[in-house]
Amino acid sequence: MNRRRKIYEGKAKVLYEGPEPGTLIQHFKDDATAGNGAKHEVIDGKGVLNNRISEFVFSKLNTLGIPTHFVRRINMREQLIREVEIIPIEVVVRNVAAGSLCKRLGLESGTQLPRSIIEFYYKDDALNDPMVSEEHITAFGWATPQELDDIMALAVRVNDFLTGLFMGVGIQLVDFKIECGRLFEGDMMRIVLADEISPDNCRLWDVKTRNKLDKDRFREDLGGLVDAYREVAQRLGILVEAENALTTGPRLVQ
Ligand SMILES: Nc1ncnc2c1ncn2[C@@H]1O[C@H](COP(=O)(O)OP(=O)(O)OP(=O)(O)O)[C@@H](O)[C@H]1O
Ligand SMILES: [Mg+2]
Predict the structure, then answer these.
(1) What distance in Å separates the CA atoms of residue 44 and residue 63, rounded to the nearest whole number?
(2) Residue nearest to atom 13 of ligand 1 (CA)
(3) Total structural domains within the chain
(4) Is residue 22 part of a domain?
(5) pTM
């Protein structure tokens, strides 16, 4: 057995060299962090659920013609992705006020926003991922105006898709964060969705109970994170009851 070459180890995932040039293997860890790593815990089973949920969302986006880095899931914790040049911007789309927006603008959590709002944060842990404007992004050359247009159009499409997907299973999409990258194909380049979409980077509230089904359970010490992520997966039809029941013994199939 050869040891795989590790390209990058982040807080929630590891990237390994892929089987072919231009590919990577994205491995989902069980680590949960908040406040730029200030708070850290290993939560058994989180990585497996995020791998499955992200696979589900990215496959659907690919089918809809929204370009992503996702190729296929390899195993419980890993997926094959296309290597991209990550644009050092975190794109946040908000539908309902929560988290830092409430603090910044003195809004009550849960306030419906007049329309979806897109925010940008510069990816730099040493600076604590500061919020930046389109002006900063283009002036400092992190993305060109054309790329930024593509990124915003992509973010809006992802928001429309996710809002409907989750509403259909009784979950409100409050906000989410995405990362985009440049995918080079010959002498062509296009912006694609990269990284992951999972309850680690979405705020998901149960429509009926208002229960939080996302990483805020960890940030706010509410407990039950894996149960909440499993609930999301089950509602999306990713984990069928029967698959869960495998751990508790065989079930009669009628
Ligand atoms: N297709 C891709 N090609 C190259 N890099 C990618 C791709 N998709 C995601 N990445 C990068 O892989 C890393 C995933 O690791 P992880 O999410 O654990 O990082 P992190 O600790 O959150 O740090 P970061 O601040 O860099 O996101 C991120 O840096 C992300 O930008
Ligand atoms: Mg990350």
Answers:
(1) 31
(2) 10
(3) 2
(4) yes
(5) 0.94
